[in-house]
Amino acid sequence: MPLPVGQRHYTHGDIRRTNKMKVFPGSASIELTGEICKSLNIKPGKVKYERFSNDNTFCSIKENIRECDVFLVQTSVRPVNDNLMEALIMIDALVRASARRITMVMPYYAYARSDKKDRPRIPITASLVARILETAGTNRLLTMDLHAEQIQGFFSVPVDQLVALPIIVKYLKKTKIKNPVIVAPDAGSAKRSGAYAERMKVPLAIIDKRRDKITGKVKIHGVVGDVKGQNVIILDDEINSGGSIIKAIETVKNAGAKDVYAGCTHPVFSPDAIEKLENTVVREIVVTDTVPIFDRGKKGKLKVLPVGSLFAQAIRSIHTGSSVSVHFK
Predict the structure, then answer these.
(1) Same topology for domains 7-163+309-328 and 165-305, yes or no?
(2) CB 108 within 8 Å of CB 268
(3) What is the pLDDT of residues 232-273, one digit of tens each?
(4) Active site members
């Protein structure tokens, strides 16, 4: 008989060991962990998080995890530093409870935008986060749509990067947008946007946006490509304040675009970002739930696509030792 998804047997000499799979939620990803566990047909791991009166974070694991293959799900969301510290504390607890392997499942990677030293005397915090996670005891990272590919190189342990492209493309095809053009919000996003255009077999245009390295101010010089009379889809890896995507929407409209759709993998959404986007001419904002959106039900233009089943498939592949790359398609 085949073993359940959450259980594998290993034989070493006369000693038979059972390596069970456990998926634990961080407090920032309780809902997503529930989606993942539902797809895996298992219950989330039992853990209790507390905040003491001195503002110290504490966690206690409420079940035996000795020799288990453990996956900790914690995304990067406000308050970022508190949630990151909580994950590190939990990893330490897992190590001390004798987990066989610990995979950090961070759908939206913390400090992803701080990935290079492009100004004097600044940190590369994305690299620092990688070192801290490994020092705490992380054996593997599972994430989605990193802001920059080089972040994978910050780790000395395996990194699996899922992509939201198949999920978003499937939805966009279902909406049957006529005469669509994918527009990259800047040159740095051209590769990612090009992958969407190739998958949908539609043209690609790029917004010529340049940032002053000293002042940080952004100036848009127009659109490279034809969007006049076309329905435009602007896609990025994340939306924070909404300022860049709003400027992109205005730019393509000024260039003669018909309807405009926007989307991203990570809806970071600083305060008022959704409201600002709602007040633009954008028809729809397509995002995933790598980051929880607490007021999604109140916003008519926001469409949230679940990624729990995709993460569940990747977790199953990691646990069973099968290929994870098949889930990138």
Answers:
(1) yes
(2) yes
(3) 999 999 999 998 899 999 999 999 999 999 999 999 998 889
(4) 209
CATH architecture of 165-305: 3-Layer(aba) Sandwich (3.40)
Report pTM. 0.91
- In tens, the pLDDT along 26-74 reads 999 999 999 999 999 999 999 999 999 999 999 999 999 999 999 999 9
- Token pair, residue 242, equals 């909404």
* pLDDT per position as a tens digit, 149-193: 999 999 999 999 999 999 999 999 999 999 999 999 988 889 999
Residue length, the chain?
329
d(CA 289, CA 267): 8
Quick one: which of 246, 233, 300 has its CA closest to 273?
Answer: 246
**Cα angle: 27, vertex 28, 33; to 5 degrees:** 80
Q: For residues 183 and 207, is the Cβ–Cβ distance under 8 A?
A: yes
- Taking a C-beta distance cutoff of 8 angstroms, is the pair 111, 146 a contact? no
Domain range annotation of the chain = 7-163+309-328, 165-305
Yes or no: is domain 7-163+309-328 CATH 1.10.150.530? no
For residue 210, give both structure tokens.
């340049």
**Rounded Cα distance, 277 and 171, in Å:** 20
